[in-house]
Each structure stands twice: as structure tokens, then as C-alpha cells.
Amino acid sequence: MFNLKKVDWKLVLGILNGIFLLYLVLADDKERRHFEELALGTENTATPGLVEGLAVHCHDLVDADECLTNYERTGRPRPVLLWLGNSQLHAINQFKPGEETAAPELHRRFQRHGDYFLTFSQPNASLQEHYLLLAYLLSRLPIETLVLPVVFDDMREDGIRDSLIGAFRDQTTIVFLNNSTIGQIMIANHDGQIDFSNDMAALEDTVQERSEKVLNSILEEVWSIWARRPILRGETFNWMYQFRNWVLGINPSSTRKMIPGRYAKNRDAFVAILDLAAVKKVKVLVYIVPLRNDVKVPYDTQEYSIFKSEIEQLSKNSSAHFVDFESLVPGQLWGSKSATTLGGEQELDFMHFQAGGHHLLAEALYQELSMLRSSP
Fold first, then answer.
1. Is 162:195 a contact under the CB 8 Å cutoff?
2. Is 79 helix (H, G, I), strand (E, B) or coil?
3. pLDDT tens digits for 257-295?
4. Any alpha helices (H) in 27-122, and if so which ranges?
5. Which range, of 142-156, 309-323, 326-340, 355-369, averages the lowest pLDDT?
6. What is the pLDDT of residues 148-161, one digit of tens each?
7. Residue 246 to residues 233, 251, 279: CA-CA distances in angstroms?
8. Where are the extended beta strands (E) located within the chain?
9. Which is more confident, 242 or 370?
10. pTM
């Protein structure tokens, strides 16, 4: 017989309270929102790079096949210009209907010359992640030119996001990575891991996986929150991020200091990218990304200057073409973003600009790439 005296009422109340909070978090969410788009804030819109309805701008291994398939549909091998970057490539500040990023504009311009311009970007992408993605794509595309933006902020990033980990299962990618010390470290850090973008992937079609799929299906039908748990994870991480910033007094205007260990790993990944490109005879355009400079920049001035000088020198050492686009986008083409701290007000955005800025970037890149590709 069921014994009420043995029930842990504190546990029951905790579960009920948790369910109630789940409903509060998700009650006003009318549609599934990607967490990375949520992190951009309401003033920035993630805009897909489409040309004639086909994707020419993807993000990671989750959607890479779509871009690769669209390239194959061209029917004949075309030289590929590959642009890797962070959210600056796919977000438009104060978006208006009909506006687009630089990616589709550049695709159309190079398409007229018989070339194929393809873009991949992830928020806060590190150079380690660019290195992994380049190694993965080199065996799948005839890459002739690499466009590589370098961002001081992203030199503070470390690790490989779940949506790229699947590349470690590709043997050709592993061969490329093994040619550098940083590549070997990346392999060692992710040895045996697989793509966790699918919550069930690690179970690899076991009895447990099949049974949990059935259970998940049932729960999704009878309980709306269960089907929307990815949203909850995103909202939770976003809240924790804002809470951390509130506690530490961090905002976009706060001075971001160099993190020496992470900086060194990303610098080594940068060199490995240039070395891999040289071995594969891929021309490289390296550029310092546009930065809002109508107000005080959020970097230590001396560290930022050292960073730019080092990237320029390493580029020249590898015969890569280097250009500094820091001042390319004028102040009036930048905007603001939602608060990144609890209870905060609108904040200046130092990474994402309006559509006019994307057009300026497309024009500048087109000119630089045209010169690079015409040189011996």
C-alpha cells in the first residue's frame, strides 16, 4: 500500500516548483528560437545567405551538407573562395526587410567570373574552430582562396563547440590536424568524442537509444515543455551569462584583457591554418575585422596593438595577404544591442553593424580578393 508518510514532500514541492518555473520561462515563447540567435539580442538579426533560394552561407557541420550539395548542383567544378568567420558575417544590426549580409553579395559578384564564394560562420568562433573546419572542408571542396578574419575578442575563446566535434571522426581531417602541434592537442582533447549536437548521438542506436526515443516521443506529445527543452537550455545559459556579467560588472564597453594561454593556442592555430593553406596551395586573405571606433574601444590599447602587429607579421611570414579593416565601417553604421547584464539598459554593439556596413565590407573584400587572385 502506498505510504504517504514515506513521501519526501520537500522533493515533491521542489519538482512542482521546477515545473511551474519552466512554464514561466516558456509561456511567452511562441516559436522555437535558436540560442545563438537569442544571444545576438533583439537588435541583431541572423540573416541567412541565400542566392536564388539556395544557401551559400552555412554555420557548422549541422548544415554544412546543404551548402556542399548546393555547390555540387552547379554541375561542374568551380574554384571555391571560402570565407570563415564569426557572427559579424551573419548578423545585421537594425535589420530592415530586403537587407542582406556581405556573403550573398560576394557570391553573386564572383559567380559572374565562374567562381563559387562560400561562407561559414559561428558566433564567437575561435581560430582553433576555423582550423578544424578548414581541415574538414579541404577534402570536400576545391578551395582556391581562403578569407580569414581575425578578431581580438575571439582570441579569448577556447574549446570546440559541439556542432563541430563530428569533424574529429573524419580521417582526412585528422591527417591534416596531425601535421601541427596545436592540431595534435585538439585531437587529444577530443579523442573518442562525437558530434553531440544530437542529444542522443552518444548512444549510437543502442537499445537505450531506441527506448529513449520512444519515451521522448510520448513525452513530447503529452507535455509541451519536454519538446521545448532546447529552448530552456538556451534561456538558462542566457540568464546565467547575464547574471555573471551583473555580478562582475561586465558590459560590452568593459576592457577585455588578453588571456595568455588561450591567446597562444589560437595564435598557434592561426599559424597552422596558414601552413595548411600553403601545403594545399590555397591563397589566403587575412584581415583585422571592422571595429566600432567612434567611442573608446573595449580593449587594452597596448595588447590590441601587439595583437594586430603579430597577426600582420605572421601573415607576411607565410606570404598571406594582410589588410586592416578596423576603420572600414563608420560610426553611424553601428548600433546598439540588448543588455548583457540583468536589469541593464541598451548597450553599444562593437561587433555587429547595419546593412550599409556589410556592403562596405563586401566591396572592400572584393577589391582585395581581385588583386590577390590576379597576382602570381
1. yes
2. coil
3. 888 999 999 999 999 999 999 999 999 999 999 999 888
4. 35-40, 64-72, 102-111
5. 326-340
6. 999 999 999 999 99
7. 20, 8, 47
8. 44-46, 50-51, 54-55, 57-58, 80-85, 91-93, 116-121, 143-150, 283-288, 321-324, 334-337, 347-353
9. 370
10. 0.77
CA pair distance 93, 116, nearest whole angstrom: 27
Look at residue 236 and give its three-state secondary structure: helix
Q: What angle is formed at CA 373 by the lines to CA 371 and CA 376, rounded to 5 degrees?
A: 100
Residue 304: all three cell numbers together: 590590441
**How is residue 309 written as a grid cell?**
602587429
Asked if 304 contacts 347 with a C-beta cutoff of 8 angstroms, the reply is: no
Question: What are 264's three cell numbers?
Answer: 597562444
Q: Which three cell numbers stand for residue 141?
A: 571542396
Residue 229 has pLDDT above 90, yes or no: no
CATH number corresponding to 34-374? 3.40.50.1110
Q: What's residue 350's pLDDT? A: 81
Which of 56, 118, 89 is closest to 287 using CA atoms?
A: 89
Cell of 144: 582556391
State which of 4-13, 112-121, 214-223 shows the largest mean pLDDT.
112-121
The β-bridge relationship of strands 44-46 and 91-93 is: antiparallel
Query: Residue 63, Cα to own-chain centre: how many angstroms?
Result: 13
- Measured in degrees and rounded to the nearest 5, phi and psi for residue 280 equal -90, 5
For CA atoms 161, 243, 45, 311, the dihedral sign is: negative
Which amino acid, 352?
Answer: H
Instruction: Provide CB contacts within 8 A for 69, sequence distance 6+.
Output: none
Cell of 245: 556579467
> DSSP for 190-229?
TTT---TTSTTGGGTT-HHHHHHHHHHHHHHHH-HHHHTH
